[in-house]
Amino acid sequence: MSTDPQTVGAPLGITPSQTIGEVLDCNGALYDKLLQPFLVAALNTEPKESSASLAAAVMRETLLAGGRNYHPLIAHDGLSTAFVEPGLKYIEAHGGSVSFGQRVRALNFDGNRVASIDVGETIPLAEGDSVI
Question: Sign of dihedral through CA atoms 110, 112, 118, 122?
C-alpha cells in the first residue's frame, strides 16, 4: 500500500492534512455499520480525526478492490518482532532510553513542544529530547 501522504488521496482530491470527518459525512447506517468499524480496525484510531488520505488508500486497496482482498493480515510472530523490538533498538542505539511500569499522567507543553512528563514525578526534557 502506498503511504506517501502527498499522493495516497490525490485521485480523490484529498489533501494530506484533511481528516475523514472533513471529507466524509460520518453519520448514517452505512457509516455506522460498515465504514466506522472498518476504519477503526484499519487505522486504529477514531475515523473522524484520522487521515483521509490514508483511509482512501486502505479503502482503495481493500473494499474497492473486491472480495479477494478481504482477508486479515496477521503478524504471525507478533507485533513485538515487527515494531516494538526494532523501535527499542533504534532508540537505545541513538542514545535514548525507554521506561516501563510508569503511567504517564500528563505531558506539559511549552508552546508546541513537550517540556516535561508527569509520571508521578515531573521529568523535564531538554531542548533536543523527543517523546514518542
Answer: negative
Question: 20-28 long-range contacts, Cβ below 8 Å, gap at least 24?
Answer: 20/47, 20/48, 20/49, 20/50, 20/51, 20/52, 20/55, 21/47, 21/48, 21/49, 22/52, 23/52, 24/52
| Cα–Cα dist 87/94, whole Å | 11
Question: 124 pairs with which residues across the strands?
Answer: 116
pLDDT digits (tens, 9 = 90+) for 5-52: 444 445 568 888 899 999 999 999 999 999 999 999 888 888 998 999
Taking the CA atoms of 8, 12, 18 and 22 in sequence, report the sign of the dihedral they define. Answer: negative
Give helix 52-61 / helix 36-43 axis angle, nearest 10°.
100
Most distant CA atoms of the chain, gap in Å: 52
Rounded to 5 degrees, φ, ψ at 110 are -125, 95
Question: H or E stretch including 113?
Answer: strand 113-118
